[in-house]
Specification:
about 600 residues; 28 helices; about 70% helix; elongated
Length: about 600
């Protein structure tokens, strides 16, 4: 227990700092240590692992300023993670199925998918990454994705072997591209056994319910962002909030749900009893004791974006000033002074940091504008100058605005030196944000959910299947018979189809099988290449091994077989099926006068014989 506490309080904090180091050896060593912790201490470091992946590794991959070495090393860690299906499943169970956590697994898959499809070819990344390096990153990302599905299939086979009788073992879940020597019947029988022997309704049902619950919350957030009133009603109907204004205020304070802060500001500014009650509850939940006015104002305005109407701003700032004066008695003579000065700071923020304004407000002008606001008395000049300097050096702005500004700077940076400076700023933000989250979450004793049921794969695949389909289809279409890319894509199709068929996921199965069938080029006039021949082989292999669970997707396999037979007949110069039907139609369409005379005479003779 003491060792785990040391890991949490010392090792993880040091690891986060060194994981963003610009020194290659330190960075690589730190990443390697993280991989060891992930494999050996994941049960004890649930929150810390999530913070490292979300706040450090994914941000390095998404950054336009991190070097090739940083990206490549992080992708190696993700590839190592993908080789262990249980670790990947547990990431999904502990974060993506937890309403209070972010979707780390889903975000990782999306990131790998974008990299594999050529994310780093954009100008934002191409200034630092050479074309050859970009190809290596694409290949490693694709390999990690395919390896993940292969390891999940293999994990499902092992779990089934542990539970099923020996005669029902799953033989077709190999991760290789070799076609089995058998005709596939035995493998098809075993594939149907997986669903029958591995279903454990008690454990997976809770996982499915948690994931559905989280999806409902996201739907409610999306509705709120489009129309706040409907979003609030939806969240009430599904039990996320009650009619209490404090519940809605607590929801607005959650920064990681993706709620649009402009929508929050407009909703809080409405002159309606329930909206004003939420505003008052939100302000009352803030603690401004012992803080300077500008710090309290920053904290308050970080929750929402100020609306454009002056009346709405007045109501918000009036309540804020009242709360600040209540928490800090003696700083101002009354709440009106705090109100006027807060409004003045907002105007100063606009004047100093709006690029369209040329003539900036000076410090003397700011002091002069705020004379006599403290119950007809002047505030100390030193105090006002300190507030002016604080706003000038540190703008009062939302995190989203700062991130958008940073992205513009990243796109505008042209040389490696500018990119390096921007990356140093990013690393400081990564470390600071990680430490803040560690302080809030690190002390909590959260329960680690282990992957113990094959049925955990189903909700995971529902999340991952569509990025996989897009990646495999795009790369198979764009690749010019590149052996490794084509082989990985076809292997990925096989794994995904195997998972979809064995868990009766009809929509996903039909989507993958139809997409693979499209690349056979058997029903098009396009030139067929080696990759198309490999797709034909893969489709036939799927029919052999997964036939019992293909269902309506058999039409694509049968069409493939039919077209192959047609091509074989054409190649051997034999008559095709339609030719026989055409000959029979021609004979039936002839009139009696056109029929041969010998046939007519023989028919009459046979009639005479019958009469006699």
């Amino acid at each position: 227990k003491t060792f785990i506490q040391v890991l949490k309080r010392v090792a993880v904090v040091s690891l986060i700092k060194n994981s963003v180091s610009s020194i290659q050896k330190i960075f690589s060593t730190s990443i390697g240590i993280f991989g060891a912790l992930l494999l050996n201490f994941k049960e004890h470091l649930r929150a810390e692992i999530g913070i490292c992946i979300e706040q450090v590794f994914l941000r390095i991959l998404e950054s336009g300023n991190s070097s090739y070495h940083h990206k490549h090393r992080v992708l190696q860690v993700f590839y190592q993670l993908c080789t262990d299906a249980s670790t990947a499943l547990e990431l999904f169970l502990n974060f993506d199925c937890d309403v209070d956590e972010k979707n780390i697994f889903e975000r990782m898959i999306d990131c790998l998918s974008k990299i594999a499809q050529g994310k780093y070819t954009s100008l934002e990344h191409s200034n630092l990454i050479q074309p050859q390096q970009e190809q290596e990153l694409k290949g490693l990302a694709l390999k990690a994705m395919v390896t993940l599905m292969g390891s999940i299939v293999d994990w499902a086979r092992r779990m089934t072997e542990d539970k099923a009788p020996p005669q029902q073992l799953l033989n077709g879940a190999d991760t290789k591209n070799d076609v089995p020597d058998s005709d596939g019947e035995e493998d098809a029988k075993n594939s149907s056994t997986l669903s029958a022997t591995s279903t454990n309704p008690s454990v997976p049902s809770s996982v499915v319910e948690l994931k559905q619950r989280k999806m409902q919350l996201q739907i409610g957030v999306n509705k709120f962002n489009m129309k706040p009133k409907r979003g609030i009603e939806y969240l009430k109907q599904h039990g996320f909030i009650s009619d209490s204004p404090s519940d809605v205020a607590d929801l607005f304070r959650k920064d990681d749900l993706g709620i649009d802060k402009t929508a929050i500001g407009d909703y809080l500014g409405e002159d309606k009893p329930f909206n004003k009650a939420i505003l008052y509850a939100l302000v009352e939940s803030c603690d401004f004791r012992g803080q300077e006015l500008d710090a309290s104002l920053r904290s308050f305005l970080s929750i929402f974006r100020l609306p454009g109407e002056a009346q709405k701003i007045d109501r918000m700032m009036e309540k804020f000033a009242e709360k600040y004066s209540q928490d800090n008695p003696g700083v101002f003579a009354n709440a009106d002074a705090a109100f006027v000065l807060s409004f003045s700071l907002i105007m100063l923020q606009t004047d100093l940091h709006n690029p369209t304004i040329r003539n900036r407000m000076t410090k003397d002008e700011f002091v002069r504008n705020n004379r006599g606001i403290n119950n007809n008395q002047d505030l100390p000049r030193e105090y006002l100058e300190k507030l002016y300097d604080s706003v000038a050096t540190n703008p009062i702005s939302l995190k989203e605005d700062e991130e958008a500004k940073h992205r513009l700077e990243t796109q505008a940076a042209q040389n490696a030196s500018q990119k390096h400076d921007l990356f140093l700023r990013e690393t400081e933000s990564m470390v600071q944000k990680s430490q803040q989250i560690l302080q809030t979450k690190g002390g909590k004793n959260s329960v680690y959910v282990a992957a113990q049921s094959v049925e955990h794969i189903r909700p995971l695949f529902e999340v991952a299947c569509w990025p996989y389909l897009a990646t495999l289809a795009v790369l198979l279409e764009m690749s010019d018979d590149t052996a490794n890319t084509v082989e990985n894509c076809i292997e990925g199709f096989k794994h995904c189809i195997r998972i979809a068929t064995r868990f009766d996921m009809d929509t996903e199965r039909d989507a993958f099988v139809s997409s693979l069938a499209k690349f056979t080029y058997l029903i098009t006039l396009k030139e067929m290449k080696q990759k198309n021949i490999e797709c034909i082989k893969a489709l036939l292999h799927i029919g052999m091994t997964e036939g019992n669970n293909l269902g309506p997707s058999w039409q694509y396999v049968l069409t493939c077989i039919s077209q192959l037979q047609r091509l074989e007949l054409i190649g051997s110069h034999r008559k095709q099926d339609f030719a026989f039907f055409q000959q029979e139609e021609d004979s039936l369409s002839q009139s009696p006068a056109q029929m041969p005379r010998t046939n007519s005479m023989s028919t009459r003779g046979s009639e005479v014989v019958k009469r006699r």
